[in-house]
Write a structure and sequence with these properties.
alpha/beta, three-stranded parallel sheet, 11 helices, 8 strands, globular, binds glycine
């Protein structure tokens, strides 16, 4: 068990998990099972990836965010002082066991946080997912039958994207939509913002930049911001560009002097754009 929240996803907790695995002791023919949301999934998955140089892992996501995104695709890791997920490994789970009835007892803030990833998939996949998410939000986010369908579409989309690019060298990077500014905001807040709250801000930030650059219609930014607001997620970026840039300098997506940004050009059309660190500094304002 680790205390909830991103601030637990550190080297000390990670070593405690490994020590506990050794104390049991788990052997190379055993399998780890990780029960929890994004933080336990990432950290437990990383422990499974490194314990005895890797043992199999089953992910059992308990949050919406983990069900639609983080439990799928084998990204595992922990945060370092310099930034999020800076140490980690790709370690595909042998199975992801999803029981959506767990969502009925999820704290509301956690639930809303997961909806930011759903909106991200709506932008990437386009219709009908985006409209289904709008209808779900309009109805007060209470229609669990609709939610099951939404989760299924997101999971299928993630699997399809990851299958062609497990190690995140190509199209998988599209899934970082909203996450460059989002991760920076999350860290700038001292992790008092949830991942989804920060991603919500990051989505509106990149949609605004894309609209300002004439790359995306402003209506898409407005429609998305309206949806995120209806869900109850924050959409304004409260941190100064210089502060965000200082954090993004250490983003693991950085490649030398460049970073690839996932840019939404239209609903269902998202592309990768390589920008220099100087260009990014300018964009951040
Ligand atoms: N969460 C983004 C990815 O798995 O690639």
């Amino acid at each position: 068990m680790v205390p909830p929240g991103e601030s637990s996803k550190n080297g000390a907790s990670f070593l405690r998990i490994l020590e506990a695995m050794a104390e049991i002791p788990l052997t190379r023919t055993d399998m780890a099972a990780v029960l929890g949301g994004g933080v336990p999934g990432d950290m437990g998955g990383f422990a499974a990836a490194t314990y005895m140089r890797g043992i199999p892992v089953v992910q059992i996501p308990t949050t919406l965010l983990a069900m639609v995104d983080s439990a799928i695709g084998g990204k595992t890791g922990i945060d370092l002082s310099a930034g999020k997920n800076l140490a980690g490994a790709f370690h595909e789970p042998v199975m992801v066991y999803t029981d959506t009835s767990l969502l009925r007892t999820l704290p509301e803030r956690e639930f809303r946080s997961g909806m930011a990833e759903v909106v991200k998939y709506g932008l990437i996949c386009g219709e009908p997912l985006f409209s289904m998410t709008e209808a779900f939000a309009e109805g007060g986010c209470g229609d669990f039958d609709a939610l099951e369908k939404i989760i299924d579409i997101c999971r299928e989309a993630k699997l399809g994207i990851v299958e062609g690019d497990v190690t995140d060298k190509g199209k998988r990077q599209i899934l970082n939509l909203g996450h460059t500014a989002g991760h920076a905001a999350e860290k700038a807040s001292g992790y008092s913002l949830t991942h989804g709250e920060a991603v919500s801000m990051g989505l509106v930030w990149i949609l605004t930049k894309a609209a300002d650059a004439g790359l995306a219609p402003a209506e898409l930014r407005d429609r998305t911001a309206k949806l995120l607001g209806k869900i109850g997620l924050p959409t304004d970026m409260p941190f100064a560009g210089a502060e965000l840039f200082d954090i993004i300098k250490n983003d693991k997506k950085r490649k030398g002097n460049f970073i690839d940004l996932a840019v939404p050009e239209d609903l269902g059309k998202c592309t990768l754009k390589r920008v220099s660190m100087e260009e990014l500094r300018e964009m951040l304002g």
